[in-house]
């Protein structure tokens, strides 16, 4: 979602980043994709969360 927003509406993206810096908005990191908890092992879910946290920080630059 964040990558798509940055590509499609850079002006809105910059505004959101400014709001985060001022403490008006919080981007909550989590999973990168919607999890399918019926199929993968716990290891896959943990790795998905770790990747999601890393990517959210990298994309947002915050």
Automatic annotation (TrEMBL):
InterPro entries: Glyco_hydro/deAcase_b/a-brl (IPR011330), Glyco_hydro_38_N (IPR000602), Glyco_hydro_38_N_sf (IPR027291). Residues 2-57 form the Glycoside hydrolase family 38 N-terminal domain. This is Glycoside hydrolase family 38 N-terminal domain-containing protein. It comes from marine sediment metagenome. The lineage of its organism: unclassified sequences, metagenomes, ecological metagenomes. It holds the Pfam family Glyco_hydro_38N. One of its GO terms (biological process) is mannose metabolic process. GO terms for molecular function: alpha-mannosidase activity.
